[in-house]
Amino acid sequence: MSGAGTAPALRVSAAGVEIDGTRILTDVSFSAHAGEVVALIGPNGAGKSTLLSVVTGDQASTGSVEIAGRALGDWSLKELGRRRAVLLQQTGVFFPFTVREVVEMGRAPWQGTPRDLDDDRVVEESIELTEMTRFRDRAVPSLSGGERARASLARILAQETGILLLDEPTAALDLRHQEDVLRISRDRARAGDCVVVVLHDLSLAAAYADRIVLIDGGSVVADGPPDAVLTAPLLSHVYELPVEVMRHPVTGTAIVLPLRAAPDAVGAPAPTVSASVPPRETA
Amino acid sequence: MTLTERKAEPGTGGASSEPRKATAKSRMRVRRAVLFTVLGALLVVAALVAAGTGQLGVAPDEVLGSIMNRLGITLWPMPSHPNGDSALWTIRFPRVALAILVGAALAAAGMIMQAIFGNPLAEPGVVGVSSGAALGASAAIVFGANFLGDWSIAVAAFGAGLLATLLVYGVSRANGKTEVVTLVLTGIAVNAFAGAGLALFMFLADTQSREAIVFWQLGSLNGARWPDVFVVLPVVAVGVTAALLLSRRYDLLSLGEKSARHLGVNVEALRIGSIVLVALLTGAAVAFCGIIAFVGLVIPHLMRMIIGPAHLPLLIASTLGGALLLVSADLVARTAVPMADLPIGMLTSLIGGPFFFWLLRRTRKRAGGWG
User: Fold this and answer.
1) Which of A 36-55 lie inside 8 A of B, CB atoms?
2) Is A87 helix (H, G, I), strand (E, B) or coil?
3) B4-39 tens-digit pLDDT
4) pLDDT at A12 over 80
5) What span, in angstroms and rounded, lies between the C-alpha atoms of B8 and B133?
6) How far is the C-alpha of B4 from the C-alpha of A112, rounded, in Å?
7) Which of A133, A138, A147 to substitute to test the interface with B, most B CBs within 10 Å?
8) How many angstroms from the chain centroid is the CA of residue B313?
9) What does the pLDDT look like over B214-249, one tens digit per residue?
10) pLDDT of residue A163
11) Could A96 and B9 be called an inter-chain contact, meaning their C-beta atoms sit closer than 8 Å?
12) What average pLDDT score do residues A5-24 get?
């Protein structure tokens, strides 16, 4: 249901952002199409979240942004609300709304349209999909960070948009729910939606993204399928840390790990020593 | 859409959750209906009792009879006292009507402020909008402004209230919300400035104007007249109706400014419109009754505790509750001390001050600091 004709679901051309004299983004171009999961990765401060906020329209930029072939500025806020949903890192709610009420807010753009009638079904399905059923009547501010993040995810799923923009949706989540979020994203993409997700976990990106856009210093340094982008030399250079890229023995997807020194002393309890700890003096 | 692949959560997902959802939702609906009915009934009773109480006592059924008689219904008895009917219509009714309108206006203004500040402690009195409006009103009195007849003082109160609201709003917000400390400190600053202005006007004023200004600072419904009611009525009607229309957007604003915008809300327009509404409602209330603080804090908060934070029912309950509180408080103000009319602003602050403190402590504890 997303994308108009052959135009990509979203396209950013030569975007530049400067805040208080500091260049955050320089000449960034990328596009995302219906049916794919695109992961934005890069070190802290690379400009991933800024790029996402350029796409959402929260951050003014030079260059151009198009949603479904139409310039971002030509969309009304309400139309945009029906076309793309945004999950921010900040997932709090100022007043003690229940999870269900918050998820219902995701239906707001459809108010007054025929799809308004679907509200209850969509809201319930979104709550179940994010496994928030037993928290449905709880006040959102009383939930843990991870539960709040899932409530927000349920809200943007209920928005039923063809484009999903997710800013670090896995940050507050445990292992299982991280997998769930990305599985849900991939399912949405397989059904024809366009998903753009900012991620820090490179192995997660490798496992779920169809395409990875690597950003460093405000510019795109690589854009392609996971195997092409996730290479040890490139990542070591960008993250300023020697990394190794291995293959999962069964699935063959990339697994990215920093190069860590092997525990030196024979018989030392290996897992307790991290690579960043300076070598101990030995008597 | 693709919300098809479902993963049933053991024990909670699937069919077993359907009736639970229905009861939780309908339970809240029943609760709201009960609250509206109770508040509405209490308001009618309080208004009848308040109108009948005073130096010239009129029984509640006779008060009802007096009203109904004017509508051509003669089911209830007329006031037995020869001057009863005229006392009701010239003194009591305008006062009760003004109490209802002002209570509704202050509670609605408080709720709107809390919605756009994203902070349950925002209130016209606390942040200084009321004293700003009082400053405008007293300026109009001292300089004898009469450019718009009955409306002059109201317009001056509205203009100054609008300035104060814009100032507080511009100064105290960061990243789409207002921290408690910032809000309270901004309130102190604005109240101090407006207090200094009031002091200056009192210094400049003649005895009569000085008395009028003192009356503003204390807050009172004494001397309410029908023309006052007819100035306040349209303002409150417009303000509350507009807030009702915006209530769904206030819900979305609770998600934060950005998320609200992503859901199609024009946040800038909503903010500016709401600031004008707050200034309108507060200005109308302050122009005729002076500073009556804390109504906008206590009432929406109590209502939120009973029926939750959804803004449409919250606004309805708050206007009813604010009206009820002010009618009752004014009754106490008139009758607590024989032959004396206590300032109602003093009464509401007597209750509201400790309540505000309690709320402040609770918010602080919950936020884990002065968040």
Assistant:
1) none
2) strand
3) 444 434 444 444 444 555 577 788 889 999 999 999
4) yes
5) 57
6) 24
7) A133
8) 15
9) 877 788 888 788 888 998 999 999 999 999 999 999
10) 93
11) no
12) 85
Q: Where are the domains of chain B?
A: 97-367
Provide the 3-class DSSP secondary structure of residue A36.
coil
pLDDT surpasses 60 at A1: no
Alpha-carbon distances, residue B147 vs A235, B135, B141, B144, B178 (angstroms): 73, 17, 12, 9, 37
CA B272/CA B276 separation, integer angstroms? 6
**Residue B91 pLDDT:** 85
Side-chain-side CA neighbours of residue B249 (13 Å): 20
What angle do helix axes B93-117 and B152-172 make, rounded to 10 degrees? 20
What percentage of chain B has pLDDT greater than the value 70? 89
Are A125 and B251 an interchain contact pair (Cβ–Cβ within 8 Å)? no
For strand A84-87 and strand A37-41, is the pairing parallel, antiparallel, or unpaired? unpaired
Neighbours of A109 (CB within 10 A): 25
Question: What gap in Å lies between CA A135 and CA A151, rounded to an integer?
Answer: 9
Sign of CA dihedral B94, B96, B100, B106: positive
Three-class secondary structure of residue B299 per DSSP:
helix
Mean local confidence (pLDDT), A216-228: 91
DSSP per position, B190-205: HHHHHHHHHHHHHHHS
| pTM, two decimal places | 0.84
Q: Which two tokens stand for residue A8?
A: 């990509």
Collect all residues with Cβ–Cβ distance below 8 Å to B267 and sequence separation of at least 6: B253, B257, B260, B261
| C-alpha distance from A7 to closest chain B C-alpha (Å) | 20
Indicate yes or no: CB of A136 within 8 angstroms of CB of B24: yes
Average pLDDT over residues A187-205: 92
Residue B159 and residue B138: Cα distance in Å, rounded?
Answer: 12
pLDDT of residue B324: 95
- Give the pairing of strands A10-19 and A62-67: antiparallel
Q: Of all residues in chain B, what percent carry a pLDDT higher than 90?
A: 27
CA distance A28 to A48: 11
Mean pLDDT along residues B79-107: 88
What's the token pair of residue B250?
């206030």
Task: Give the residue-averaged pLDDT of B348-358.
Answer: 85
Helix (H, G, I), strand (E, B) or coil at A68: coil
A106 and chain B: CB distance < 8 Å anywhere?
Answer: yes
d(CA A59, CA A38): 20
Q: What is the pLDDT of residues A116-136, one digit of tens each?
A: 888 888 999 999 988 888 998
Please, which pLDDT band fits residue B309 given cuts at 50, 70 and 90?
Answer: very high
Cα A125 to Cα A151, A177, B1, B13, B54, distances in angstroms: 12, 17, 11, 10, 60
Residue B288 CB contacts under 8 Å (≥ 6 apart), including other chains: B98, B102, B153, B154, B224, B228, B231, B232
Provide the 10 A C-beta neighbour count for residue B370: 12
Cβ pair A122:B261 closer than 8 A: no
pLDDT at A172 > cutoff 80: yes
Q: Which of A56, A133, A193 has its CB closest to that of B17? A: A133
Is CATH 3.80.10.10 the classification given to domain B97-367? no
CA nearest B254: which of B120, B110, B105? Answer: B120
